[in-house]
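It would be a great kindness if you could assist me with a short task in structural biology. The matter concerns a single protein, recorded as an amino acid sequence and a row of backbone structure tokens. Kindly check, if you would, that the fold set down in the tokens agrees with what the sequence suggests. Thank you for your consideration; the sequence and its tokens are set out here:
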Amino acid sequence: MKKIALLGLLLVFLFSCKKDHKIEHIERAFYYWKSERDHFDSIEYKLLDTLKIQKLYVKFFEVKYDATLGNIPFSKTNLNEYSWFNNDEPKDSLQIIPTVFIKNEVFLKSNKEEMDTLASNVKHLVSKYFNNRFKNYIDYKEIQIDCDWTLKSRDNYFYFLKQLKKTTQKELSCTLRLYPYKYRTKMGVPPVNRATLMCYNLIQPFKDNSKNSILDLDELDSYLTVDKKYPIHLDVALPLFSWAHHYQYDEFKGFVNLNESFLKQVCEQKSELWYEVKKDTSFVGLYFRAGDKIKYEDVSQKKIRNAISKLKDKVKFDDKTTVTFFHLDTLISNKYSHETLTSFYNSFSY
């Protein structure tokens, strides 16, 4: 009887370990998505340093489709190492990961010959920008492709990834939205070394006015229903940003960067997400009329911790996993202390 009891306890222990798999080693990372600046400010640099960030996914450029010119790069980064290294010694502890955002229309409108050309051009431009801006830095080991691919674009996209991996001879990663993560049989698995599960922008911004489109926990939960481990190595990304939707006479005017101080001073809160401007006012070059409506979407500490808990419980990660937050910005320090940010990373491993 004692042997049976001990066996039962052992099975319970093994089952518990399997359900809540502990990640032994977390690689800390940020996305850097700014195109207009060539340097970090002091706060951003301090975040990299004090948080001991190991990877920085830098958007090198974007690619869009033009009916006349074909697939063309735009929105290139101006970031360079000379403006943020204090001396000539590179920081070997920080890897720069060239990241390229490619619009889905590129793969919907291109043939295989154009995909071959695109792979060659991406390789050339990534190498050129890295060597020009980070030439005293350790060579990049990985390239990441960011694309919201669909079932219709899948074949061209997967073909491009294969060609890029072949031509660069680098480790290749890509972003992975929650829909293709859940419906992997239907959508297929990208032919890359690793994928980053993107746990934000889960809902189209205008699809449901009652929900936070950046991070809705019920929406996240609905995609984390697959017990089987994803076929390739899986990293994870979570949001640290906020934005506001500005409406005038019920017409959407655009996304604006506002803060809670502005909302409290000049707006009346109508619901959890919605505010109404009380008086005509201007803010950072923008003009707001009395009666304008603002939907303010933010990500609280509690929501991030709950998201981490769900991911740990329902996604099978490898022992060594990269945790990336979007994105490196001065405003992060206004919302989260260094201790809080550190705890976000550490939460994945206990």
About this structure: The longest strand covers residues 55-66. Confidence is low (pLDDT under 50) at residues 8-19.
